[in-house]
Amino acid sequence: MNDDVRRAFADRLRRAQELNALSKVRPASREFRRLVRDVEQWEVESGATDWSRETRVRALVGEAACVYALTGSIEAGGEVLTRAQEAAGLLDDRLRGLVHGQHGVLLLRSGDSKAAVRPLTVALELAGPADHRDRTVLSLNRGSALVDIGALDEALADYETALEHARLVQNDHYVSFALHNIGYMHHVRGDMPAALKSFDESVTLLPDGPDGLALVGRARVLYEVGLLSEAEVALAEAAELLADDGLAQERAEALLDRARCLVGLRRYDDARALAGQARRLYARSGNTTWSLYARVVELEAMLASDRAGQDAARRRLRRRSVLALDVAREGDARGAVARFGVSVPARLHAAEWEILAGGLDRARDVLAEVPRLPGWAPFPVRVQHQAVRAQLAFALGDRRSGVRAVRGGQRAISEHRARLGSVDAVTATAVHGVRLGNLDVEAALRTGRAADVFDAVERGRATFAGSGRVRPPSDAALAALLTAARREIESARDIGASGAGEEQLRRQQHLREARRLQDEARRRSWRIGGEAGTPAPTTTRALRAALAGDGSDAVVADLVLSGGDVVAVRVSREGSRLVRLAPLDAVAERVRRARADFAVLSNALIPAPMRAAAVSSLQRTLTWLDDALVAPLGADGDLHVAARNLLLAVPWASLPSRHGLRTWANSWVDLRHGLPLRRPGEALVVAGPGLRFATAEAKLVAGVWDDARVVSGLQATCAEVVSRLPRAGVVHLAAHGTHDIDNPLFSSLRLADGPLFAHELDGIDLDGVVVVLSACEVGLSTPRVGGESLGLTSVLLRLGARAVVASVAPLRDDVAARVMPALHAELRDGAMPGVALARAVADEPEPVPLVCFGPLVL
Fold first, then answer.
1. DSSP bridge pairs for 835
2. Other CB atoms within 10 Å distance of the CB of residue 680
3. How far does Cα 220 stand from its chain's mean position?
């Protein structure tokens, strides 16, 4: 009879513990209380035994955790633990260890991590070697306490121990938690791909899908990578899940992390509201340390709003500086656990408010209180430290120190991005460098010296240039996701957009599934580690020396924005100067008009009067752009334009004054010396489906080359083309092109089996390849948060392409069929790609929206 009762009580205890592990706190609490009551009643009737006492102690320990989670009162949880201690007695080490362990957990959750380490250590010393479940939980909790006090190596060892014991006990939930915490350690150490891999493995073990805590951990990594929108969405979902489970403190973490994301997304009022909500939840739970963390994020949102505003009253700025210093001193009182989450960032906020208020001496005094930060300090805090140092130095007129601080911050960013492998992740990190770059460029513009502006601009742009790795990932699962997405898009295409009713419903279902698969492929790509370094920025001195050494009359125009205007840093071998060109709004309007006129001209069936009107309108627009953007530069020979965002969509080679002249563009000044015209290899010529002249164009282009490989018809599959790219010296792709504004890494070229995505080219070695894209609009790119541009062309250039000739507007099939063979003939005969394009389009009766993109090769 006793054995049956024992098994029944053990089953009930296990169910209650599992409910608690799943964060179902209220039902777990009910089960623990009922179990304690029933065990005590049984002991009154039948007499206490070792197993009944252990069951009662374990149930009370579980109930203490639930009481604290539901009330936020460490005293209430402690009262339950006192009952557990009395039940454990003095002689049973294992039971005493359970109580010590739970005491440590309550201290940890209240924010007193330093105090939590001792009882958790005692508990581990008292636990039996075969108590795998207890050792798992204790190691996880002590690891968390050690992380808070900065003992990272010891924390990782505890998490790995927890994983080992969790696997021995065959509990997927504990294995998931251990993997989650190991992922967090990779995150703290700066290895974001490894962190995401651990988090993803953790989530897949949960049968009911991700819980709130798993989403919070993963989102923190996405935030540090720079994927703010993705992190914010995950945190919003996490907060809802945690609210449903009644976990106030965990929900506060999700709200706080989401507030950080919203600051980066410039939603300052929303960020401040969420951080305040998190602060109140922490305070209600008695966690004063994390309440201060939330206060710091509130301050960050206020500061970002004041920084963006230009009219904040000096008195208010001073008040906020004092407030931030008060928060910093409260953090000081909590020692190491609050150093990098409270004390340091709050002082940096205070110093910046003083700078904004004009109190430079006070700012210097506050900044002097911030110690030199170690390399293992959180990456965003290190960058913030350098940004405030730079801001103060520039304000004091100490340009040398300001530039030194900017470079220090950019080095930290370069080290951070060095471990990232995908173009998506590398470009996302730019969000962390926006402020540094803006401070650098604004200070340089104030000097009025063109060389200073050029060097500042290129310092920032080079930090995020290039690819994250130099070889493609061998990830079968990623390849399968992309193939499946391609099939869904083709299924939607087969149905067509003209159907109705059920057909359109099925089409939309295919497209939704394609986007889901694409999103999953993106997420998987973030787990890929990096190998490539950060390129060195080009300086004015190096550029002028290279131009002079080559005897080149080229003009380099580095375009930046200042006060709503487009400003060029004009550099030639004779010198450099600043040229204010035109208002950005006016340029943007002309670019939109040009694209609309090119779209009309791309239709071969429009009536002659309409075509004539479109040509006339386009010529007026191109003349305006020429007069506004090129004429003031005085470029009579070669012109290389470095620009971002909408300025990369200008049809530079079509502007009237550039007729017959070498013109090319890039997103930064990537200076190369003595490169061959192209790397050795075959000419790969591909014809996609659905274009009237694609096959004829491919044959004409292939006929230009002695060693051409033509891939067309059913052979022109994505896998076939990708497999041949590493062996090619010149690539010509005649196919329908699509630039995906919302998801630019899925901009694509349509081949026989569907779209070839920019995403699946990531990592292929294209160093020295000349790529010609005979397709509509694939020369476009989309700026992401942080300013980096993404699209098919930008990915090809990041992979090392010598040049990419692509269209920034719709391109008519028959025009492409005429221009492309002439372009390749020029390339064959040794012309530079920009020169080849200029000569190929010289005799066209209408403007052609092709642009040569690529590095500055002399």
1. none
2. 10
3. 11
Q: What are phi and psi of 698, to 5 degrees?
A: -60, -40
The amino acid at residue 563 is G
What's the sign of the alpha-carbon dihedral 112, 113, 116, 118? negative
Tell me if 646 sits within 8 A of 595, measured CB to CB.
Answer: no
Q: Specify whether the CB–CB gap between 803 and 853 falls below 8 A.
A: yes
The backbone torsions φ and ψ at residue 686, rounded to the nearest 5 degrees and listed phi first, read: -120, 135
pLDDT of 209 reads 66
Residue 858 in tokens: 């002399």
Calculate the alpha carbon distances from 713 to 453, 656, 702, 710, 720 in Å: 51, 38, 15, 10, 12
- Are 467 and 423 a contacting pair, CB within 8 Å? yes
Angstrom CA distances, 701 to 347, 717, 818, 828, stand at 63, 19, 10, 11
Nearest Cα to 289, choosing from 254, 330, 242, 247? 330
Which of 846, 836, 704, 688 lies closest to 776 in space, CA to CA?
688
Cα–Cα dist 216/673, whole Å: 47
> Mind listing the pLDDT tens digit for each residue in 148-204?
888 888 999 999 999 999 999 888 888 988 998 899 888 878 888 989 889 888 877
Which residues are CB-neighbours of 516 under 8 A, at least 6 positions away?
none
Q: How would you write 788-829 as a 3-class SS string?
A: CEECHHHHHHHCCCCEEEEECCCCCHHHHHHHHHHHHHHHHC
- pLDDT single digits (tens) 468-478: 776 666 788 88
Q: What angle do CA 718, 720, 725 make, to 5 degrees?
A: 95
- The amino acid at residue 386 is Q
Q: Structure pTM? A: 0.85
Identify whether the C-beta of residue 807 lies closer than 8 Å to the C-beta of residue 779: yes
Which two tokens mark 495? Answer: 């149905």
Any idea where the domains of the chain sit in the sequence?
Answer: 1-89, 476-525, 540-671, 674-857
| Among 433, 449, 458, 436, CA closest to 539 | 458
Separation in Å, CA 159 to CA 166, 184, 199, 485? 10, 10, 14, 37
Q: Tell me the pairing of strands 663-666 and 850-853.
A: parallel
Contacts of 9-16 with C-beta under 8 Å, sequence gap 24+, read 9/35, 9/38, 9/39, 9/42, 9/52, 9/55, 10/55, 13/55, 13/58, 13/59, 13/62, 16/59, 16/62
- DSSP character for 681? S
Task: Please give the Cα distance from 698 to 820 (Å, whole number).
Answer: 9
pLDDT digits (tens, 9 = 90+) for 130-156: 889 889 989 998 998 998 888 888 999
Q: Using 50, 70 and 90 to split pLDDT, how confident is the model at 780?
A: confident
CA triple 165-171-172, angle to 5 deg:
115
Structure tokens at 222: 């996405």
Q: Which amino acid is it at 619? A: Q
Residue type, 139: S
Q: Which of 486, 514, 788 is nearest to 666 (CA)?
A: 788
Q: 621, 622, 659, 604: which is closest to 637 by C-alpha?
A: 659
Which candidate, 690, 652, 685, places its Cα nearest to that of 820? 685
Kindly state the tokens that stand for 482. 């992309």
Both tokens of 590, joined, read 């002309």
Beta bridge partners of 570: 557, 577
Give the pairing of strands 575-583 and 639-642: unpaired
CATH of domain 674-857: 3.40.50.1460
Report the alpha-carbon distance of residue 711 to residue 702 in Å, rounded: 10
- Residues found in the chain: 858
Mean pLDDT value across the chain: 90
Burial class of 373 by CB neighbour count within 10 A (0 to 12, 13 to 18, 19+): middle
Nearest to 801 by CA among 780, 831, 771: 771
- 190 closest CA partner among 453, 62, 381: 381
Maximum Cα–Cα distance for the chain, whole Å?
A: 105
Strand 663-666 with 565-572, pairing: unpaired
